[in-house]
Amino acid sequence: MTDDGAGNRRVPKRFQKLKFNPLRDVLPIVAVIVGVFLAVRAVAGLAGGGDPLLIYVGSGLAVLGVAVFFINRWQRRRGL
Fold first, then answer.
1. CA separation for the pair 58, 63 (Å, rounded)
2. Using CA atoms, how far apart are residues 28 and 24, in angstroms rounded to an integer?
3. CA dihedral 17, 70, 64, 26 (to 10 degrees)
4. Residue among 45, 42, 66 at smallest CA distance from 56
5. Which of 31, 58, 68, 73 is exposed most, by the fewest CB atoms within 10 A?
6. Residue 80: band (very low, low, confident or very high) from pLDDT cuts 50, 70, 90
7. Residues above pLDDT 90, as percent of the chain
8. What is the pTM (predicted TM-score) of this model?
9. 7 near 31, Cβ under 8 Å?
10. Are 29 and 65 in contact (CB under 8 A)?
11. Could you tell me the CA-to-CA distances from 25 to 7, 28, 49, 51 in Å, in that order?
């Protein structure tokens, strides 16, 4: 009898676990912090004649960071 090589098979790439990647794991948190900082700074600066566009940019960056954080958690759970 011959061995069919069942023990030598590699796990398919889609089932492998994600390794630590600082850009993927830490950058969404940094984006949320920077976005909140920009939005709060813009709100405080509006009284002095600041640009209201920074409120939208900061809020958008914070929302994008939260969304990417949850997408990364979902991918890690699935093993993508």
1. 9
2. 7
3. -50
4. 42
5. 73
6. low
7. 32
8. 0.68
9. no
10. yes
11. 33, 7, 37, 32
Q: Token pair for residue 32?
A: 């949320």
* Tokens standing for residue 58: 């900061």
Q: By C-alpha distance, which of 34, 38, 63, 73 is closest to 52?
A: 38
Alpha-carbon gap, residue 71 to 74, rounded angstroms: 5
Give the tens place of pLDDT for each residue, 21-39: 778 888 999 999 999 998 9
Three-state SS annotation for 5-67: CCCCCCCCHHHCCCCCCHHHHCHHHHHHHHHHHHHHHHHHHHCCCCCCHHHHHHHHHHHHHHH
Residues in contact with 65: Cβ distance below 8 Å, sequence separation at least 6, in sequence order: 27, 28, 29, 30, 31, 32, 35
Cα 57 to Cα 48: distance, rounded to the nearest angstrom: 19
